[in-house]
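Batch manifest, entry 17 of 40.
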Amino acid sequence: MNRLSILTKGLVKENPVLISLLGLCPALAVSSRTTDAFGMGLATTFVLLGANISIAALRNIIPDKVRIPCFIVFIAGFVTVVTMIVEAFAFDLFEALGIFLALITVNCIVFARVEIFAKKNTVINSAIDALGMGAGFTLALIVIASIREIFGSGTWLGMELPVLIDNNISIFVMAPGGFVVFGLLIAIVNKVSDGKAIKRKEFGCGGCPSACSSAAGSRSDSASCEKGGN
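Output type: structure tokens
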């Protein structure tokens, strides 16, 4: 795979939210305003870039048996850095994102990329992969948030929109509205791709630090985890 393909696959072909169905918690929780969604996307991209580069650089040093704890240490470190930056320079965004900023530490998108890609590839390719996946995640959040903000608040990026500002549908900025918009987007993706887009080709419980996959390394446990949820 050439580097252009690595960069662009995260935007459409393997979009982490709309195709791989990862990172759905922040995608729905912080997508009621476009500015918040953009901020979450940038923060996640920063963490993903730092984690991918670090893991790729040390991939021949980190023992396989302790790779998950090592991944957590690196990811948590970059999350701490980005949290401090956001709190210092964008306090309104820091308050809007709340706990979801810290929860980037256990974001399945980040774990999926370090487990699937970074630990097997060079630093440069891993950095490109992180930028592509981060851009795809950010793009998906912006699309979801734009729809919700426009129809739910009658604004976009804080700008009032004629007609819609006085005739908004408030449910769009509530939790049910997030699920409705996300479901419609998934339906559109499925329709456009003739049902072939929504596939999980690479990510499984092997890269997840949750108890269901780490307590016992058997295939049966992994299978039950995959059936149980993300």
